[in-house]
Amino acid sequence: MTLEKDPLNLIIAGVGGQGNILASQIVATAGIKEGLYVTVGETYGASQRGGPVMSHVRFSAKAQCGPLIPEGEADIIVGLEPIEALRIIADYGSPATRVIVSPRPIYPIWVLSGQAKYPPVEEVVQKLGELVAEVRVVKAIEEGETGLAANVVMVGALAGSGMLPITMKNFEGSIKEIVSPKDLDLNLRAFKKGVELAGGKAAVPVPVKTRKRK
Amino acid sequence: MGTLELDKPGKTVLMMGDEAIARGAIEAGVDFCASYPGTPATEVPESLARVSEHFGIYAEWSTNEIVAFEAATAASLAGLRALVAMKQNGVNVCADFLMTVNLAGINGGLVLVAGDDPSAISSSNEQDSRSYARYADLPLLEPADFQEAKDMTKWAFELSEKLGLPCILRSVTRLSHSRGNVKLGVLPEKTRKAKFEGVYISGAFAAAQHAALHQKLEQAREEFETSPFNFYVGPKKAKFVIVTSGTGWLYSREAVAALGLEAKVGILKIGTTWPLPEKFIVDHLKNVAEILIAEEVDPFLEQNIKILLAEQAKTLGPIEVYGSKSGHRPAYGEMNQDKVVQALASIRGLQLKARDEKYIEQAKELALTYIPPRMPTFCTGCPHRASLWAIKSALKLDGRDGFVTGDIGCYAIGAGPAGYFQIKTIHCMGGGIGLANGFGKLDRFAFNQPVIAVCGDSTFYHAAIPALINAQVHNSNVLMVVLDNGGTAMTGFQPHPGSGFDALGRSAPTVEIENICRGIGVEVRVRDPFEISQAVQELYDMLQEDGPRVMVFRRRCFRIEAKEKLQKKYYVDQTRCIGDDCGCARFCSRVFNCPGIIWDQEAQKAKIDEVVCTGCGVCATLCPGGAIKVRGAAS
């Protein structure tokens, strides 16, 4: 198998407690089922207590990649939280990057304490759009709904977007392998919801001004 | 069934570096695993504990690293294969035993996994543990990818047994906590029986043992000369070679490819970094003019290679060495591909395709000023928030400019806004009470500030007891607050001597913190930090006393608690919350700072974020308007 771009670099960005690691594990295992070399670099430890968390997932048909994506080389970013998607653009984004983002904010402690302001989500999405090739907003979770497998909804959206060379069968096989049997139904439903959102009406592509690299 | 138990030799699976190390140990037929949790090494013993019944492995979370290492060594002396894993700081705790077990020798294969944390992502330092191998004259292996993490661990047991020495396997965060492809090997039949024979005494013949140790190390070097973990890739007659170890291998290979230098630059990858396979290295550096050393943190490989080049100057002639001394690689912080690319470009005078500066400027501006920063904080429902609030309030009431010495654990976040900036010192495990008992003896120098040492429960057992005994026998003026949340929370809720269960989740005897304190003779009280006004009052009262005192704030970590029962649902009764007219300065969201409470912009009143709230109810006790209530309860 050859990849259109090798290595293909994906970042899943969010906040500690959002299930970032499970999401990256599902995507990576699906990649291995596809016969690829996959490397996942994860940041956690202190960061799992509400700090930013980021997983670098790298696919290659040729060799095992290093665990960190070089600067400006993220091809796809999945944002489990809107400002966390925007936060990593300076280091890893480029005008060619494509973004799938959940619009539900998780307020940092400095916003709660009134020392900082959380910008309007629509505006965050628009700013993202100015920096990258494409932004898809996926409402993984409805207002009032509790935080139920929103991470897996976003994995579904990634699968449904067709941005990765991985079949639905391998995504679902990966979920079955990783998730515990008692949570399997819930997670498969979440995955399907994501697939539908990515292809259905709920995924609203935002009009984008693409900046060309000079 | 997980990948660890999978009996499918040749199948490729996704494994975390730590899991791959555990699988390597399983394929080596490991019998015994003792460890103390510490990032990034925790998942090695955790993985072995998970499959311990399946493979007949004994697994325990020990009180601290040196106890773990000694326990594992006992298994080795009885002829079993044993593993001990720890974070870099843990190697310091082990050092005393390490510097004698090397002389006295071992029997069954014994592997010490040192998980280093370059850039101190989850640590209080970023020390490079490799120097311990050179210091203790022990063989050192550095896996460079996930497959090697498994294969090297398996080999380390065989090597250790052959040499009669413990082997050190050095991993780093980016390997331990990353995941990648691992092709599984064969699961062995296990037949070993434990039997102790012989004499293992270091001391009486230490000099002779030291000489024998040097011979064993030469034997290790011979083994390393033909190890498959050392190899060269690149053009046959390269004038420029990158010499690399550990994660530097993957970064170097990508950097060479990114710059299109595959036909000009070779890579000499060393997996056995102490003692160096000298013949192998010399053979590959003949006719080479320049080398770049790509390794993580200290110039360990760099310095040892330089010594080798000096010794071999007649054979090799002059070779220019680029590395940290030449300024081409920082000897701090973690490695990455970009750092290797920059080093190569600057040495070879290459123009890099730079990223658009305006683009970066625009994105940085957004990241740094437009969006708010996000600091790690205590979880909603965390007992440490209430404990630090009580400490802050008691110190304020006391008014003598008291301060808090900190220790290692979740509560270290209390040095920042989550803990109201109360913690003023953080060093090593047990360092807080050690410092406090020194501060507590400064009264004759006109020192009159009260000192509170905070210490986690796991840390208490690990390292705080000798300092507390010291405080007692010297009548030091110190108030120790043990933040007892029922487990080793920071690393993933592993049990400790007070938890009442073992590494496999089976019920176990407990050693109570208050009984230890009473045994020492220190005054001790146990309170629930969620009973917050009582907690503040009692802390204040204790601050007025002299001599050593201990307050145990006991409240289980809600993440452990949540597994056991459903939490209550809280809400803000917006008919009772009067917003900014209250005069409380938005106490719940701005002052108490819990992420479970947000400001409802429309209503201009507080509101519970039900997705995040865990129902601890502390805010309900503190809200001056009594506006926070339990759903379904009578109002």
Count of domain modules of chain B: 4
Oligomer category: heterodimer
CA-to-CA gap between the ends of chain A? 33 Å
CATH topology of chain A: Pyruvate-ferredoxin Oxidoreductase, domain 3
Question: Outline of this structure?
Answer:
Chain A has 214 residues and is an alpha/beta fold.
Task: Outline the structure in words.
- The complex is a heterodimer of chains A (214) and B (635).
- With 214 residues, chain A is an alpha/beta fold.
- Chain A has a single domain (8-204), classed as 3-Layer(aba) Sandwich (Pyruvate-ferredoxin Oxidoreductase, domain 3), CATH 3.40.920.
- Helix content of chain A is 36%, strand content 17%.
- Chain A contains eight helices and seven strands.
- Chain A has a seven-stranded mixed sheet, with helices on both faces.
- Chain B has 635 residues and is α/β, with parallel strands linked by helices.
- Chain B folds into four domains: 12-189 and 200-225, Thiamin diphosphate (ThDP)-binding fold, Pyr/PP domains (Rossmann fold); 231-348, Rossmann fold (3-Layer(aba) Sandwich); 383-558, 3-Layer(aba) Sandwich (Rossmann fold); 570-630, Alpha-Beta Plaits.
- Chain B is built from 23 helices and 24 strands.
- In chain B, helix 1 (17-27) crosses helix 2 (43-50), helix 1 crosses helix 7 and helix 18 (457-473) runs parallel beside helix 19.
- The longest helix of chain B has 20 residues, at 206-225.
- The model of chain B has no long low-confidence stretch (mean pLDDT 94).
- At the A-B interface, helix 1, strand 2, helix 2, helix 4 and helix 5 of A face strand 1, helix 8, strand 8, helix 10 and helix 14 of B.
